[in-house]
Write a structure and sequence with these properties.
Oligomer: heterodimer
Structural class of chain B: mainly alpha
Number of helices of chain A: 6
Distance between the termini of chain A: 30 Å
Distance between the termini of chain B: 26 Å
Helix content of chain B: over 70%
Strand content of chain B: under 5%
Number of strands of chain A: 0
Number of helices of chain B: 8
Largest sheet of chain A: none
Largest sheet of chain B: none
Radius of gyration of chain B: 18 Å
Radius of gyration of chain A: 19 Å
Structural class of chain A: mainly alpha
Chain lengths: 223, 220
């Protein structure tokens, strides 16, 4: 997977398609949303990607606890970092969108607050890592925190916003967006291109980071 | 099974005895509670219900950090090694969870009493609010017990505890404030039962996670 190049090419093609078709393609004319619905290809895909990366991160943390190999710890950290990057991008694209549709970039909407909390928790994860010197202990304790935080964060992210009233599109069912807002033209861009495209880009970034880390470790071991 | 229960009870008794003999945590936190609430009273007198509710839960949060953090930080390395040799990790964390739950329950009720005394009581349904306070105290103590176990492994433990704890506890704290709003008005709030069940479910999950994950923190 890492050495092959076809998926990098696929990632570029998908993202170019997302940007061109996303900005030029037809969208349904909806009240208030109007043309801003195109933000779906960017903002919502960022959140999808973030959730996927945090999930892979916690999956690697579990793998580390079962079988303590350094590689799992590096993967866990790398995916958490990429998740943070996509989370910040999701927050920014959401705030720009909210500026034009809600009139304010930040309005303490339950979903905005939830997103900010998620990012704070993962920043705390990075701080916790840096507070320990011993490599083995650091990997173990941060894996434990990763699992604990993930298990406490995501139920509240998925359940609580459904119980509170919110301005965010998609109230019932999916808390993130309303699939009924999309028509077939949009679905053809969102599901096959936007979500996998941004996710692949994140994987690419993560793999570069992991390879850099491995090289550093190798140099460190060789003196 | 009975051996496990025996170990848990023995460890729990040890914490309780230590507390009764030294009376350090209890009176320390009590003084902290009393002086904080007194300062609040001097600063704002008797506030309206929204402010009252918000202040109450924030004070609960700080009490919890102060009361629970000590439980792991006070154990020296040598003593931990001793516990390791005589009891299992699960027994140890269970006894800590139980003890901190009891401690926090007492602290929550005392602080509720002091709040009533100094800052007035804007509640319509007193009994309900006592119940919510107990539920909240238990939830906070469970989460912070486990976080204290994590923080005990890091350097600058007190600071790490706050950094780890605050973001994780925000959703629960918001939920508690929302639930307790029901006790301030005479109307029945929709979805109240659902929220209480969600809190209880989260508590169960924290206990479950603590039992699974603590053995990994324990071995050094």
């Amino acid at each position: 997977m890492i050495r092959r190049n076809w998926w990098k090419l696929l990632c570029i093609i998908l993202l170019v398609y997302t940007c061109i078709a996303g900005l030029l393609g037809g969208v349904p004319e909806l009240h208030i949303l109007n043309e801003t619905i195109r933000n779906l290809y960017f903002h919502v895909s960022m959140w999808f990607a973030m959730m996927i990366f945090f999930f892979i991160s916690v999956w690697n943390a579990i793998r580390y606890l079962i079988n303590p190999v350094q590689r799992f710890d590096i993967l866990s950290l790398a995916y958490a970092r990429t998740g943070i990057i996509f989370g910040v991008l999701g927050l920014i694209t959401g705030a720009i969108w909210a500026q034009y549709t809600w009139g304010k970039a930040w309005s303490n909407d339950p979903k905005q607050v939830g997103a900010a909390i998620a990012l704070l928790i993962y920043f705390a994860y990075l701080v916790l890592r840096n507070s320990m010197d011993d490599l083995d202990k650091r990997a173990r304790v941060s894996a434990v925190y990763n699992i604990f935080a993930f298990a406490l964060l995501f139920p509240t992210l998925w359940i609580v916003p459904r119980m509170l009233e919110s301005l965010h599109p998609g109230g019932m069912g999916n808390p993130g967006f309303d699939p009924k807002d999309m028509d077939s033209r949009m679905r053809l861009i969102f599901w096959p291109a936007a979500v996998p495209g941004w996710t692949l880009l994140g994987v690419w970034i993560t793999m570069l980071y992991v390879r850099l880390q491995r090289l550093k470790d190798k140099m460190f071991q060789n003196g | 099974m009975s051996r496990t229960a025996h170990h848990i009870i023995a460890l729990f008794k040890k914490d309780l005895l230590l507390e009764i003999r030294q009376q350090y945590t209890f009176y320390g936190v009590l003084l902290y509670v009393a002086s904080t609430i007194f300062v609040l009273y001097l600063a704002m007198g008797q506030p309206e219900s929204m402010v009252w509710n918000g202040l109450f839960w924030v004070i609960q949060l700080f009490i919890c950090i102060n009361a629970v953090a000590k439980s792991f930080l006070q154990e020296s390395r040598g003593r931990m090694l001793y516990f390791y040799s005589i009891a299992g990790a699960r027994n140890f964390i269970t006894s800590k969870l139980l003890f901190n739950m009891l401690l926090m329950l007492a602290m929550s009720l005392i602080s509720l009493f002091l709040f009533q005394l100094l800052m007035g009581s804007p509640m319509e349904k007193m009994g309900m609010f006592i119940g919510i306070t107990m539920l909240g105290g238990i939830s906070l103590s469970l989460v912070f017990t486990f976080l204290a176990a994590i923080a005990a492994k890091a350097q600058q433990q007190a600071a790490i505890m706050a950094i780890l704890g605050f973001p994780i506890i925000i959703p629960q704290l918001l939920l508690l404030m929302k639930i307790s709003n029901a006790a301030f008005a005479d109307v029945v709030q929709a979805g109240l039962g659902q929220m209480v069940w969600l809190m209880a479910g989260l508590d169960l999950m924290v206990i479950f996670l603590a039992l699974i994950l603590f053995p990994f923190l324990w071995k050094d």
